[in-house]
Write a structure and sequence with these properties.
Layout (H helix, E strand, L loop, with lengths): L1 H27 L9 E5 L5 H10 L7 H9 L9 E5 L5 H10 L5 E4 L6 H10 L5 H7 L24 E4 L5 H22 L8 H14 L6 H13 L7 H10 L36 H8 L8 E4 L5 E4 L2 H13 L2
Antiparallel strand pairs: 1-2, 3-4, 5-6
Helix pairs in contact: 7-11, 8-9, 8-11, 9-11
Length: 334
């Protein structure tokens, strides 16, 4: 028996030494056998063994055993997060494990600026490779998604909230548009919980006026003041005479060339706020948080007019005569 042990123990020690050297090499050496980029999806509920197998199949690991042993030795199995991961270069086993522990999941980031129309928004989404423009435009007709907020809505105009979003490669166009509507719901609910809306105003009216403010006030500091002018006009039933509403009508008709002409002020459209009193039929863009807030908390002023100074700010006037002088100063000279 002792003789047998004397013969077997050196062999076992040699195997252990070789295994230790191999493990040390596998744990410290970087490896990557993928192409320009490799995506590995880790489904929810995946165990350490199945994760290691997926990583090995993707060319991220040379062998799955070092990964399994490393995870179990450090008791990290429960901390590996599900999701789709993007790999582009060689990494050590510990670095791969750390990415899965941190949940460094791959997302496409999409920033939607304030003031875009719904059509401009879906065109932006399509340019970022998150769906075809035709499919996205069709989704703008899903007014059933906002029917409780705006029963008269004819599109999702105004309800695609401007924000920075993160989407996976597999997010569908419907999921993208729905998430933007959901973000609008969240933002508007938060605002309405903290600020009392004007008496008898509906969400649709708030969004419509906010969209006009978004398009008029390029300077964020002027939003509440522009809101006060428009609300002062509404109070005395004075036409809003808001250029962006006509531009929106021209865009709908495919007639906008980047300039607003004098003849356009007579455009026969319900969005022409020079000819029609009150708010237009619906939003003309997707307003951001600050423009919605401006409707709920307008400045207190006795201004009824404003004109662009052509530097991103406006000159505000209380009466027509002062306004005409400002127009001559800032617009006629231009």
């Amino acid at each position: 028996m002792r003789l047998w042990l004397k013969r077997i123990i050196p062999g076992l020690l040699a195997i252990a030494a070789v295994f230790t050297i191999w493990m040390r090499y596998e744990l410290t050496a970087s490896y990557y056998a993928g192409g320009a980029e490799v995506f590995v999806n880790i489904p929810r509920g995946s165990g350490t063994n199945s994760i290691a197998t997926a990583l090995e199949a993707g060319g991220i690991l040379r062998h799955n055993l070092p990964f399994i042993l490393y995870v179990r030795w450090n008791r990290l199995g429960r901390h590996l997060r599900a999701g789709e991961y993007r790999f582009t270069s060689a990494a050590r086993v510990s670095q791969v494990v750390q990415r899965l522990v941190q949940g460094d999941v791959f997302f496409r980031t999409l920033t939607v600026p304030e003031g875009l129309t719904a059509r401009e928004t879906v065109a932006l989404i399509a340019r970022n490779g998150l769906g075809t423009e035709n499919a996205l435009v069709e989704l703008l007709g899903r007014v059933d998604w906002v029917s409780d907020l705006d029963p008269g809505a004819t599109s999702l105009e105004g309800y695609l909230f401007p924000e920075t979003y993160r989407f996976s490669r597999h997010t569908t166009p419907e999921e993208i548009v729905k998430s933007m509507v959901a973000q609008f719901r969240h933002a508007s609910a938060s605002l309405l919980a903290a600020h009392r809306p004007p008496p008898d105003w509906t969400i649709a009216q708030i969004v419509t006026l906010a969209s006009m403010i978004e398009r008029e006030a390029k300077n964020p500091d002027e939003r509440r003041l522009v809101a006060s002018v428009l609300m002062n006009r509404l109070r005395i039933k004075m036409p809003l005479a808001c250029d962006p509403t006509i531009i929106y009508a021209l865009k709908l008709a495919g007639r906008y060339d980047g300039n607003l002409h004098k003849a356009d002020l007579g455009l026969g459209s319900p969005y022409n706020t020079y000819l029609h009193q009150g708010l237009p039929p619906g939003p003309i863009a997707n307003p951001g948080y600050d423009s919605l807030l401006a409707v709920l908390e307008p400045a207190t002023s006795d201004f009824f007019y404003y004109v662009s100074r052509n530097d991103g700010t406006h000159y505000f006037s209380k009466d027509l005569q002062t306004h005409l002088h400002a127009v001559a100063r800032y617009q006629m000279r231009k």
